[in-house]
């Protein structure tokens, strides 16, 4: 499916950061090995809660290649047969490899969930979340809180790897809870010791949430500390950002999160620069509308029309960022419930608008203006050697983009 014209990118679409960054040289970069898989280009779609479902993964696949990971799945309701969780864990026809991210704080439920996923032949790759900074997760000792307790982290990772068989396991984590409580080097060593195929580092602390710049130096330090592949995550807004990250840190691949929200063609640009080509111009508004409606159709087909279109509203706001639209039209987008209604809204749009250069690096998805104090269970820091699993609640992050960088 080729929705975009082929045209070398205009300079107005290259930020000052990337204006002098050349595409990859022949054999400068290698495919990233994750178990039996050779991923080229070395690009992974970040798991994002409420976002990286089958329709969104399909959109990204149609524009490029790489590894596309599901949104975060909670192990306990998966084991207990929760209908919503089981639906989130579904893959579409022809998806390969089927990559799923699992979350949990109890090795028992992790083991049972992995047994089920592997035994039913539902996954080809398993990622594990130890980086989610959402308060409702960390205040129960989950997500980014888990690496504070290295023994608990080790038990959880061991439970996954030992039950995964031939399915490769990777883990994703942050630098730490805050600048005083860094855990990423410990998490990397645990992953390597327990047989993980690779690690991913979102180079921010949980206290940062999605604020400020990612610390790529931490990615370089982690790469020097482990022998398994390291994937860097954070601040990939343009394709050349990925090249800069890999050249500066020597990491083995990149994880793309918020930069592709409303811009699935970023994966086309990434494929171009890794194959030695300059990226092409982003689409004009007419092409964006076509892409938007295609995505909405997939959402309606997968979830049912009303739920799919209501869930699509946030994507519509991401797709249209920076384009000239009336306030009334934007307000109507947030009330739309049908495909026909969505198409009708854009029938009179100013379709010949070029993509706005100001939108190339505009932040999409969840963001914050300041660092936050990370919510932890009462007394959590008193016994960091303890490997007793914290008491689990529902532990599901809000549908706000999850931990995409």
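Q: What amino acid sequence fits the structure above?
A:
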């Amino acid at each position: 499916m080729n929705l975009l014209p082929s045209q070398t990118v205009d300079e107005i679409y290259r930020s000052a950061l990337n204006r002098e960054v050349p595409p990859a040289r022949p054999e400068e970069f290698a495919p990233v090995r994750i178990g039996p898989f050779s991923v080229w280009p070395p690009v992974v779609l970040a798991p994002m809660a409420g976002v990286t479902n089958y329709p969104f993964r399909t959109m990204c696949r149609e524009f490029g290649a790489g590894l596309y990971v599901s949104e975060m799945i909670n192990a306990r309701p998966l084991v207990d047969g929760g209908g919503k969780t089981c639906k989130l864990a579904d893959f579409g026809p022809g998806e390969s490899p089927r990559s799923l991210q699992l979350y949990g704080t109890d090795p028992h439920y992790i083991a049972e969930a992995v047994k089920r996923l592997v035994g039913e032949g539902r996954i080809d790759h398993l990622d594990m979340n130890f980086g989610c900074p959402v308060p409702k997760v960390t205040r129960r000792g989950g997500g980014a809180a888990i690496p504070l307790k290295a023994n608990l982290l080790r038990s959880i990772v061991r439970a996954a790897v030992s039950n995964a068989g031939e399915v490769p396991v990777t883990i994703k984590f942050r630098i730490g809870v805050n600048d005083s409580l860094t855990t990423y080097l410990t998490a990397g060593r645990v992953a390597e010791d327990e047989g993980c195929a690779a690690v991913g580092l979102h180079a921010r602390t949980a206290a940062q949430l999605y604020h400020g710049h990612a610390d790529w130096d931490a990615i370089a330090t982690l790469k020097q500390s482990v022998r398994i592949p390291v994937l860097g995550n954070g601040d990939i807004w343009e394709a050349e950002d990925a090249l800069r990250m890999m050249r500066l840190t020597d990491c083995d691949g990149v994880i793309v999160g918020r930069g592709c929200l409303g811009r699935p063609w970023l994966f086309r640009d990434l494929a171009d620069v890794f194959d030695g080509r300059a990226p092409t111009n982003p689409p004009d508004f007419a092409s964006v509308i076509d892409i938007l409606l295609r995505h909405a159709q997939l959402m309606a087909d997968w979830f049912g029309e009303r739920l799919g279109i209501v869930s699509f509203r946030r994507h519509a706001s991401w797709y249209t960022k920076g384009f000239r639209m009336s306030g009334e039209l934007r307000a109507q987008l947030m009330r739309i419930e049908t495909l026909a209604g969505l198409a009708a809204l854009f029938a009179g749009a100013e379709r010949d608008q070029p993509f706005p250069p100001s939108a190339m690096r505009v932040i999409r998805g969840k963001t914050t203006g300041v660092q936050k104090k990370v919510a932890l269970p009462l007394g959590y820091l008193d016994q960091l050697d303890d490997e007793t699993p914290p008491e689990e609640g529902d532990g599901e992050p809000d549908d706000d983009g999850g931990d995409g960088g």
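Q: And what stands out in the fold?
A: The chain has two domains: 28-280, 285-355.
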